[in-house]
Amino acid sequence: MSDPLLKAVEDALDALERVLLGKRQQLRLALTCLLSQGHLLIEDLPGMGKTTLAHGLARVLGLEDHRVQFTSDMLPADIIGVSVFEPSNSEFRFHAGPIFCQLLLADEINRTTPKTQSALLEAMEEGQVTVDGHTYRLPKPFFVIATQNPATQYGTFPLPESQLDRFLMRISLGYPAPEVERALLMGGDTRSELQRLPRCLTPNELVDVQVRCSGIHTSSSVIDYLQRLVQFTRDSDLFSYGVSPRGALALLRCARTWAWLEGRAHLVPEDIQQVLEPVIGHRIRSAEDIGSHAGDRLVNELLAKVDVLG
Amino acid sequence: MKQISRAAVIWQLAAFAAVVIPHLSWLPFWLIGLCLATPAARLMIHGGRWSLPHWSLKLLLILLVAAGLLVTFSRETGMKATVALLVAGLALKLVEIYHRRDALVLLYVSLFVCATGFLFHQSIGMAIYALLSVVVVIAALNSIFQDPQRTDLLRPLKRSVRLVALSFPLMLVLFVLFPRIGPLWSVPMNQQSAVSGLSDTLAPGDISQLTKSDQLAFRVSFDGRVPEPAQRYWRSLVYTEFDGRTWRIPPGYERWHAEEEGLTVQGATVDYEVIYEPSNRNWLVALDQPLAAPQGMRIGPGHTLMITRGADRRLNYRLRSALEYQLQSRLSERERAVYLQLPPEGNLRSRERAGQWWEEAYGNPERFVDRVLDQFSRTFTYTLRPPALANDPIDGFLFDTQQGFCGHYAGALAFLLRSVGVPARVVGGYQGGEWNPYEQYLTVRQYDAHAWTEYWIEGRGWVRVDPTAAVSPERIVESSDRVFAGDPAFLSDAPLARLRFARSGWLVDVRRQLEALNFNWHRWVLNYQGQQMQFLGRLMGNVSMEKMIVALLVPFALVMSVMAWTQLRGRRSSAKSPLERKLSTLLEKLERLGLPRLPNETLQAYSLRVGKACPVLRDPMSRLASCDEAVRYAEDDAQKSDLLAVIHECHRVLRSVQAIDFEERA
């Protein structure tokens, strides 16, 4: 690897794999998402390593992170912060909430009410929060890694589409393979391992990576393929609605980052195929069952129907 | 209202120019001025510098043009006036194009004007020019329908060329098969004036005028044996009346029917086909002597071939002639009187000398003729520019100047024969011609015009005698262009034509090839009407209505289906480059071998799978995938040649691989 940045990212991946065994693909996707300046949604059952992944990412990327455990009685002020009257100088002072950090880990985001979920909206899209008419800028970079339990579980408030759309990617980790799980069971304490994770990238380098990713050569053939994919979701009867232009842009952004991670200077259809499911899985709905999040099945259908070469 | 783009305007002007140019040679000068002014006006209007003309101005223009046409063509109604009207209309239309519809009218009329060019010229050059004009007009039509956002000057031309090329086969089929219907009406053509040729009088020196012209008289192709140059006497008309100076055809002679003009064939006959250029005379040509006249023609007095209506168009007829014959063994009293007619006085010296010779010949006409010819060959010279003859021209010629051209000799001999009581006449026509070895035909031009004598002997009929042969035998054996090549008077009206008479070498070859081409053009294209039935008969046995319809419809359906197919195919793969198409065929081949590429499979993934199924393909396929990636996604055009090479390599390897290899390993 000639590019020191790419080397650093590869190191980060290797380090992360030490705490999340056998999940290289998911780790890569998660990194891709953050390197593309997007927010990440991790959806899985409890105990699958979602929080570990989020913490690990914060450490290797050298980001200041806060963790918020979302509960059903939480209010927006609990995240954003609150203005408190100070009798000493007779004025209100803003006490910043946990959102003021570089990486917010929103644990179990669908356990809280839509009101609180929406409080994240502005922060995620604009990188700022507004309290009592005052706008406060959030630090840069600002990432949200949210975890959520599958919607079928009790005590969940499904994220509204607008909120879902703010997440660049949604990934799930899944059960580990038996031999990996065995290694996990036999191995040491992952929590202490997490503490020992090296810091591989500085926030400045993170910005550099993003610049490089956006410079990936994108041929019209690739754009054609991307458009065919997007158009298919809009035209086909399988989907109740198609991918929005924002979704298409997200797809392109992630695919470029993926290509950069692969050490390539140009985009190929494989890059799109790799990031397709995480990027659009949560943005599409099946026409048959509008309530379900059967994104992966639909995406497979989509991949099988759209010709790469046109 | 559809906006007309700049490109469309330019194309319209080009189309206008293209169709008007062939007519410039005869259009009146004011009309040429109009044809120059209106395109300029159109440009000014399009550029926004002038506004569209007011209706009063247009009305004025129309009235002026109408008056101009009336004045210019008041004396001649017909083709020229009609075409001039069309051209004027076209020119005026240029300044009032508001809508797309107006432009369409302009261009449709342009196509019509383009066709009228053939009324004046029918050469190959004109045909090629008309085809190019059609391409330009179609391009103009095309440019009207261009997307106004994306106008282009050259794209309509490309499309037009393609369209015309596509319609070419259909055009050929229609040309060959479409039934020729005679004209439903005829328009008088004003082209009589320019045609030169033999006239109905023969004064000394007339024929030498003709030698100044290299204009084509007729062409002949023979079915079998080709007669020797010395036998190629093409008789056209017979002069019987002599007034002391000029030989002429007496009034009413054309309507004569010889009372008993029996022809007995004594030797071989020759079959041939004549393509006779328009002459506007009733006399055609026939090789001495024609047996029977084709339909619409008759053998007239003096055994000449005549057409019932004037030969104002190119004629194509077949004849059979006898080279050895006996013509009219008996002469009626009236005929004898006609063929012995002489002016009562004048040319006394000649009459006297004829009497002497007659006595020397013991009253035998043949010996008499021999005596005269002997005299001719001894002291006479053959020249294109004989000195002028005053009164008693026969005397002057025989005793003083002793220089003359074929007309002098033929006339003098006939005079001498008549004066001693032998019926004689002067025959006008052509002698010789140039043989074209490439297409096996004879070209006879105006400078081959000739005159000779016929005299009548009891029991033998008319005997041809050519006194020119006695004076200048080479004129008969060789073609006239060789004989006169050194004479400045020869072809003096066509100075450039002399260039064509190089003795040998490539120039002659090129000229003959060109003439052969022209001959075929006349025979097969311009005169196809006459050949059609014969040609079709040879092509498909007996010609019936049903066959014709099928033969017309089948190629039409064929061409249409080919076009439809290319259209559909084009829609499928129009965006594909040749490289893409080659790649597609490779993938199709692999699919047939049982290894179809899945839609979501990139070439990288596919090449891995193919490599597993068939190890020989592993290496070329993986190189193919990486080259394709470089070309398609990294857009590195430098690798295109590599990609092409590797595609060819894959094809090559594939050919050596059997389908079984796949099945076993897949």
TrEMBL record, chain A:
<dbReference type="GO" id="GO:0005524">
    <property type="term" value="F:ATP binding"/>
</dbReference>
<dbReference type="InterPro" id="IPR027417">
    <property type="entry name" value="P-loop_NTPase"/>
</dbReference>
<keyword id="KW-0547">Nucleotide-binding</keyword>
<feature type="domain" description="ATPase AAA-3">
    <location>
        <begin position="39"/>
        <end position="169"/>
    </location>
</feature>
<dbReference type="GO" id="GO:0016887">
    <property type="term" value="F:ATP hydrolysis activity"/>
</dbReference>
<dbReference type="Pfam" id="PF07726">
    <property type="entry name" value="AAA_3"/>
</dbReference>
<dbReference type="Pfam" id="PF17863">
    <property type="entry name" value="AAA_lid_2"/>
</dbReference>
<protein>
    <submittedName>
        <fullName>MoxR-like ATPase</fullName>
    </submittedName>
</protein>
<comment type="similarity">
    <text>Belongs to the MoxR family.</text>
</comment>
<dbReference type="InterPro" id="IPR050764">
    <property type="entry name" value="CbbQ/NirQ/NorQ/GpvN"/>
</dbReference>
<dbReference type="InterPro" id="IPR041628">
    <property type="entry name" value="ChlI/MoxR_AAA_lid"/>
</dbReference>
<keyword id="KW-0067">ATP-binding</keyword>
<feature type="domain" description="ChlI/MoxR AAA lid">
    <location>
        <begin position="233"/>
        <end position="288"/>
    </location>
</feature>
<dbReference type="InterPro" id="IPR011703">
    <property type="entry name" value="ATPase_AAA-3"/>
</dbReference>
From TrEMBL, chain B:
<dbReference type="Pfam" id="PF13559">
    <property type="entry name" value="DUF4129"/>
</dbReference>
<dbReference type="InterPro" id="IPR021878">
    <property type="entry name" value="TgpA_N"/>
</dbReference>
<feature type="domain" description="Transglutaminase-like">
    <location>
        <begin position="398"/>
        <end position="469"/>
    </location>
</feature>
<dbReference type="InterPro" id="IPR002931">
    <property type="entry name" value="Transglutaminase-like"/>
</dbReference>
<feature type="transmembrane region" description="Helical">
    <location>
        <begin position="548"/>
        <end position="566"/>
    </location>
</feature>
<keyword id="KW-1133">Transmembrane helix</keyword>
<protein>
    <submittedName>
        <fullName>Transglutaminase-like enzyme</fullName>
    </submittedName>
</protein>
<dbReference type="InterPro" id="IPR025403">
    <property type="entry name" value="TgpA-like_C"/>
</dbReference>
<feature type="transmembrane region" description="Helical">
    <location>
        <begin position="126"/>
        <end position="145"/>
    </location>
</feature>
<keyword id="KW-0472">Membrane</keyword>
<dbReference type="InterPro" id="IPR052901">
    <property type="entry name" value="Bact_TGase-like"/>
</dbReference>
<keyword id="KW-0812">Transmembrane</keyword>
<feature type="transmembrane region" description="Helical">
    <location>
        <begin position="166"/>
        <end position="185"/>
    </location>
</feature>
<feature type="transmembrane region" description="Helical">
    <location>
        <begin position="103"/>
        <end position="120"/>
    </location>
</feature>
<feature type="transmembrane region" description="Helical">
    <location>
        <begin position="57"/>
        <end position="73"/>
    </location>
</feature>
<dbReference type="Pfam" id="PF01841">
    <property type="entry name" value="Transglut_core"/>
</dbReference>
<dbReference type="InterPro" id="IPR038765">
    <property type="entry name" value="Papain-like_cys_pep_sf"/>
</dbReference>
<dbReference type="Pfam" id="PF11992">
    <property type="entry name" value="TgpA_N"/>
</dbReference>
